[in-house]
Amino acid sequence: MNDTSHPDADLLQVDAPHRELLDQVLDKWSLQVLDELCARPLRFNELRRAIPVVGQKSLTATLRRLERNGMIERVVLQSRPVAVEYRIAPVGNTLNQLIDALLRWTTENLPQVERARERFDSET
């Protein structure tokens, strides 16, 4: 990845800021939250129902982290009672095709990965 002969070598760096951003966007819950919000804006409880295995504390932390990084927007709705909705932000929307590709890759390759894990585990 750090091939300096490549004309775009500077674009392919994985230094500390890059790693931090990738860690925050590709973590356990962020991919699922981003995938859901790419489809449509959702309120907190709608997100919890869409991703039932995520806890309230983890979802809150994930939403704050994604908002801080500009991936999603938190919008206060003027309703009674006041409600909050989360929407994909323009920079977050640029991840839509990448997220779909990662999820598709995972689905297609999981059987191979599981076989490799079984082989490895049986040899060790």
Describe the structure.
By secondary structure, the protein is mostly helical. It has one domain (9-123): Winged helix-like DNA-binding domain superfamily/Winged helix DNA-binding domain (Arc Repressor Mutant, subunit A). The protein has helices spanning 16-25, 30-39, 44-50, 56-68, 90-93, 96-123; strands at residues 42-43, 72-77, 83-88. The chain has a three-stranded antiparallel β-sheet. The protein is globular and about 60 Å long. The two termini are 31 Å apart. The model has no long low-confidence stretch (mean pLDDT 90). One of its GO terms (molecular function) is DNA binding.
End-to-end CA span: 31 Å
The CATH superfamily title? Winged helix-like DNA-binding domain superfamily/Winged helix DNA-binding domain
Strand content: 5-15%
CATH level-3 fold name: Arc Repressor Mutant, subunit A
Average pLDDT for all residues: 90
Anisotropy-based shape: globular
Total number of strands: 3
Radius of gyration: 18 Å
Q: Structural class of the secondary structure composition? A: mainly alpha
Low-confidence stretches: none
- List the quaternary state of the chains: single chain
Q: How are the strands ordered across the major sheet?
A: 1-3-2
